[in-house]
Structure formats: structure tokens, C-alpha cells
């Protein structure tokens, strides 16, 4: 289970090794992603609160990176945080998400990125529910939903 201290250590010293790497030129990313996805995932933008695909979606399944298809989160860890964006308590594995300090917009936050392709996902905060206390606040534009097998 990831804890806040783990997130801080990864952001400060070294992130876990990903299972693979996906690297593309910015031109290739622009061809692959929609303009909204490109803005969020490659330019570190954000989508409008409550007006996104997965904010209110709680069907079973897995959430993958919209850029490279790597599995990032399970619906079992998704909860209603009233933040306006999909919120998760844990990533699917310790090596799924990469962490970086983000001092933009006069705030100090921890950015969450796909550990395979470095696409911006959102941010992680230490105000989530027990036992881990984490809240991964993730842009829907960064995710693709994979339905659970029946």
C-alpha cells in the first residue's frame, strides 16, 4: 500500500522503474491524442471540474493511461471525493505512477504522471480516506476505461 511518505520519497529521490518505456515526439503525441488530451497530458493542463467523463462513473473496471495503455488504477480504489475529478486511493501497483514536485500556480503539490510514458495524469494529495490517506485526483482526459470481464 502506498502512503504519503512513499510518494514524497519517490518524488524527491527516485521513482520506481517502469515495466517498459514509451517515448514519442511531441508531433507524434499531437497526432495520437485529441486536442483536450494533448492539453492535459502533454502540456500539464486540467479539465473542467465535474464536466469530465469519469467523475461520476463507478462501474467496475480498470483505468489505463490514454497515451500508452498502461493500467494505472482499479475501480475498486475509486471513491467519491467531491473534488470534481475522478479520485482513487491507490494506484494499481507501486510502479504504475511517477511522482514529481509541482510548484506551478503558486501551489506546492505532487504531480502524478504515467510512469511508462510520462503523460500528466493529475495530482496526489494526503487528504484521502484511511488506511492509506491518499487521494489521486486524476483528469478523465488522461484515462481510458477498460470494462471488467463478465
Automatic annotation (TrEMBL):
Top-rank lineage group of the source organism: Bacteria
Task: Respond yes or no to whether keyword Oxidoreductase is given for this record.
Answer: yes
Q: Which reaction does it catalyse?
A: L-methionyl-[protein] + [thioredoxin]-disulfide + H2O = L-methionyl-(R)-S-oxide-[protein] + [thioredoxin]-dithiol
Enzyme Commission code(s) on record: 1.8.4.12
MsrB domain spans which residues?
26-148
Whether Oxidoreductase counts among this entry's keywords is yes
Q: Which PANTHER family match?
A: METHIONINE SULFOXIDE REDUCTASE, METHIONINE-R-SULFOXIDE REDUCTASE B1
Cited NCBIfam families: peptide-methionine (R)-S-oxide reductase MsrB (TIGR00357)
Q: What is this protein called?
A: peptide-methionine (R)-S-oxide reductase
Query: Which species does the entry assign this protein to?
Result: Pontibacter saemangeumensis
Taxonomic lineage:
Bacteria, Pseudomonadati, Bacteroidota, Cytophagia, Cytophagales
Q: What gene name is given for the protein in this entry? A: msrB
